[in-house]
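debug: dumping io for the single-chain case to check the tokenizer round-trip. Nothing else runs in this session.
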Amino acid sequence: MKHKLVVAFFCAALFFTVFVWAQEKVLSLEECVEIALEQNAEIVMGEFAVKQAGKDMIIAFSNFLPKVSGELGYTHSVAGPRTTYRIDTRTGLLVPATLTEETSWSSSAGVSVSETVFNGGYNYFNLKQSKALKKSMEYNFNDTKQQTIYIVKERYYNLLAAEKLLGLAEETLKSAEESFKRAEVLFEVGKVPKSDVLKAKVQLETDRLGVIEAQNGLAIARASLNYILGFDVNNTIKVVDNLDVPEIEVNYEDVIENAFARHPAIRKREFDLKASGAGIGMAISQYIPSLSVYYAYSWSHKDFSQISHIFDKDYGWYMGATFSIPIFQGFSRYAYCSKAKLAHMSNKEALNQVKREVALEVQQAYFEVQQSKKKIAVTNNVVDAAEEDLRFNKEKYNLGAGTILNLIDAQVSYTSAQSDHIQALYNYKYAIARLEKSMGMLVK
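debug: decoded output
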């Protein structure tokens, strides 16, 4: 009995350990990025899109190869008895006559080869277009990966900031509780009026509400990170904190140059433009004559066993060439060419537009990095000053020389300063991630 209890306890402990481990995952930023690139739905769909584009390129290349088809057939036919008429030699009259069932067999085999020698360059431009579209899809996939990495970083830092802000709110609540108790004690000994107790009570409840809001913000931040990672939104996830301030020194002109050369959105649009240019060539090819050649060999016999003589007798073959000149096909070719030119013009404008968007994003990100870095130093000085002011007002109030309003103001200022400093730290990290994204550096 004692042995069974030990085994049961061990199994329960093991289950609890596995359950807790499964529910609480401690992940670094790099691990979160790796998980998102493997599990995120948009990443998975992007991989499928790239593979499909690769198949389209194979289809386009196959148009250059000859088409070969083989044939092997066997036919068995039965014609049932049917009624006809004959002339009776004795009477000279038509009388019905019934024929017997007729059966026949037929076997056949053959092979045919056809090849399009030239079709106005359509196959060449079609292959060129498919290659460009494949590259476009690859860069679109890289852009999706880069966007995913950026969102992961953003939500990772949001979760870290939310945890810090919750801790700050809880510390502020504890301080408010201490101030409230201190106000009650001083009121009981007659050193402060009842209004001080009431004001401290109001601040206490306000700070309690702040904790609730911080808890809600943390839950939302954790759910958002779970979502982008492909986890259940209710999954409990722990992240590794990192408050270091990385140094980044870049020249604005270099940033712009790198962005135009590497940003996947720009590269995608460049290949879209090449693809639409090839589309114009495909459209023009419909005005040009085409040439194709063909060859076929066939054999037939009622006895399939005679196929061993397929090259000796009962065979036939032919070969030829077709030169086709398009004369008039309605106005479809004109419309096709006009449509291809319009698509090319549209892609050219789209390329210019995405360059403007990237330039704007680079400028915003660059100056945001500079601004955020300065804010860190400023908010750090504000925290130091607010902390000293809070300490001074606490001492004055405890000695009966200060007012509760001054103490509350000092506490609020200190909390606000700490909150601003936390936001400044993570905003700097956001800004760096955004600058890397604008330069196309998040995807190697």
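debug: round-trip ok. The two ends are 61 Å apart (CA to CA).
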